[in-house]
Amino acid sequence: MEEAEKDAKTSTSNDEHHSTCPTAHHHSLKRSWIFHMHTLWLFTKSDLKTVMAPTTIFAICCGLAEHAAQDPTVNIPTTLLKLLKRLPHVLIWTWSNLLVEDLANQRLPTSILEDSLNKPWRPLPSDRITPDETRHLLLCLLPVVTLLSWHLNVATESILGFVFIWMYNDLEGSGEGWLIRNALNAIALANWDAAATSIILKRKGSAELTNRTGVWLCAVVAVIATTVQVQDLPDMHGDRAADRKTMPLVVGEEVTRWLTAAVVIVWSFACPRIWDLEVFGYVLIVTVN
Known about the structure:
Number of strands: 0
Distance between the termini: 76 Å
Order of helices and strands: HHHHHHHHHHHHHHH
Radius of gyration: 23 Å
Largest sheet: none
């Protein structure tokens, strides 16, 4: 009789625990579309300022430059307004491709381990979604994003981006050393810049962009490849646990900071030269950097 009462109490205690634990609460909320949208947002949250914003700004600036190169007398405010009408297309395309990258990256065991230390609020370490559910979502999202890219005439760029995502994540290119890690990041982001510029200009792919834009894209690759390691500085604790060979962990945090600072100074003078800026442009960029 006493054992039966103990079993009943244990069962009641377990039921109360499951009804109040965060995981159970999350599963109950999964019925809400707001919960799903928030989960997707959390996947991309930390990359909005490092990917979405720079890619969008690059597309707008290159769009203005392309119009000015074709017609030096072009009205800038009118042209800018015309480009901004295409901005929703750029944002939707960039965010959807960014979501593919984040799903592919954050579902991996090493990424979950790293995020549990560096970004515990992300969907997987916070138990908002399981790795299998993330994989299923990725399987559904890939053809949707490909069709969207085909509609916007940048399917080639999107598929090329999938290749870089595969190399970086599933083939563990991100763990092969900081040189390969930086190079893959730089080329992939420049590819997205090219696609975003093509979309905002309504071109049929980045192949129709001018040579000047091509030079700028090459500069973007070089700048990102030599400075992207600053993003690894706040994540050293998790990267060390995941045995990732990032630049701060390989050469040291202090050396990384000094080398990056020196590279930024070099690019502060080189980029205005590439962009054919006047003296004011040099002063502004050097001062800001």
